[in-house]
Amino acid sequence: MASVAGPVSVFFGGMPLSVAGAVCGAIALRRFGRLAAEGSELSMAAARLMRSSVIGLIVCVVAFALNAYSFFTVLPEVLQMMEFGELDLSVESGVGSASGQSATWG
Question: d(Cα 65, Cα 70) in Å, to the nearest integer?
């Protein structure tokens, strides 16, 4: 999951998805590390999967850093726009709404 959650969180999921991917990557790394250390038949496969979980964990951490940077860069601008009334969050300005009517009830 960590290999997929990192790149997807850059575009859609944001910081919560990258944290979830990093947690899954850390859990997988720990469990595959135990299997690789046992020396059984599965140790070679576990070592390869452990390498994959390390890469997924790194990707999720980098995605979290990018998401956090973009969030804290844009946040002051959005707060300033809200403070001065420049940010229009009303639904009535949408397509198909007539003046004086609510977009929900018509």
Answer: 9
Give residues with Cβ within 8 angstroms of 101, minimum separation 6: 92
Q: To 10 degrees, the CA torsion angle through 69, 73, 75, 78?
A: -140
The C-alpha atoms of residue 76 and residue 56 are separated, in whole angstroms, by 31
Angle at 85 between CA 80 and CA 88, to 5 degrees: 105
Give the pLDDT band (50/70/90) at residue 91: very low
Containing 5, the helix (H) or strand (E) segment is: helix 2-8
15, 71 contact by CB (below 8 A): yes
Query: How many Cα atoms sit within 13 Å of 92 on the Cβ side?
Result: 7
Distance CA 91, CA 84 (A): 19
| Alpha carbons 8 and 55: distance in angstroms, whole number | 15
The count of other CB atoms within 10 Å of the CB of residue 59 is 22
In terms of pTM, does the model score above 0.85?
Answer: no
